[in-house]
Design brief:
rod-shaped, mainly alpha
């Protein structure tokens, strides 16, 4: 059998035409069919073993990728939960600040409402009246100073 395999493997240059013709006739008659089946079976077994190894390697690669993906998913969801918790805290702080500002604004508006004074048809805020009083007192102080300066100048 090995001799026939070696003969089949031998290059065509070394074989004479009669030998080639005999091998062709033997192949057609099926004389070396058993040898061809054995050769085919061994080659297919090697191919199947190679495919099995490739499939096992791919399966292990897929398992490793799946594990990495699970780690990334858990890390992303932890980070997302942490960010959401921080955002909730910040939102609560902003709400408290807004409530405090609204309360202060209401107090200021109430305080302003209390200072408004009615003068006939007009409603004047208390702040406006105090400003007028200050201006009048400045003017009166200036008038007193000018009068004192004229008095001192007339005495000299």
């Amino acid at each position: 059998m090995q001799e026939e395999q070696q003969k089949a493997v031998a290059p065509l240059k070394e074989m004479n035409p009669i030998r080639r013709l005999r091998q062709a006739i033997a192949s057609v008659r099926g004389e070396n069919t058993h040898q061809l089946v054995e050769s085919f079976t061994s080659e297919m077994t090697m191919v199947a073993e190679g495919l099995c190894e490739d499939q096992n390697k791919l399966r292990s690669d897929i398992d490793a990728l799946y594990a990495d993906n699970q780690k990334l998913d858990s890390r992303v969801s932890q980070d997302l939960n942490a960010m959401l918790a921080r955002m909730d805290q910040q939102e609560e702080q902003i709400r408290r600040r807004m409530d405090a500002l609204e309360e202060k604004l209401e107090q200021i508006e109430k305080h302003r409402e209390g200072k408004k004074i009615r003068l006939g048809r007009w409603q004047v805020s208390g702040g406006f009246l105090s400003q007028i009083t200050r201006l009048v007192s400045i003017g009166a102080g200036a008038w007193v100073l000018v009068t004192l300066m004229h008095l001192i100048q007339s005495m000299l």
